[in-house]
Amino acid sequence: MGAGRRIVAEHQVGLRTNSGFTIAMRSLHWLARTCGDNMIEVSGYQSESESETEITVTKKPKKTKATYITLVQGNKLLMFKGYSYSKNSKIRNGGYRYTCSRTLSEACKAYAHVSADDIVIKHTEHNHEPAKYIKVNNGRYIRINKN
Question: Chain-centre distance of CA 112, in angstroms?
Fold first, then answer.
């Protein structure tokens, strides 16, 4: 990489030139030069003009395994990114839709979809901070109420 340029983002991409030639999965670097112009470099191939190449960036979603906790009362909750969800309904392909366990108390509309093989495949944002849970002697959990 030449002087005065720095990588500002990096992804794995496919590159297609105007002639239709496709370069299989290469590292893409979004470069910023000190003069302020942006430039794309794909594993040694460079383009300063959008007409020269078509860049397709596809990020593979991380497969996140669903984690569950059981409350002292026996309720089983999905835990994802610090938030708890209650099982709501079945979705296609044998998975389930979970809604935020604070739907009523916080009017939160967040939800998550979990596939039949326990992978979180979709989730939305919450309108509140996550609840805190502590594990008790029998391995179950209690929610700590905020004061």
Answer: 12
Q: pLDDT above 90 covers what percent of the chain? A: 44
Structural domain containing residue 136: 64-144
Give yes or no: residues 76 and 123 share one domain.
yes
Give the C-alpha separation, 46 to 28, whole Å: 10
In three-state secondary structure terms, 46 is strand
- Helix, strand, coil shares of the chain, percent, nearest 5, are 5, 55, 40
Dist. CA 120–CA 62, nearest whole Å? 9
Say if residue 98 is in the same domain as residue 46. no
The pTM score is 0.57
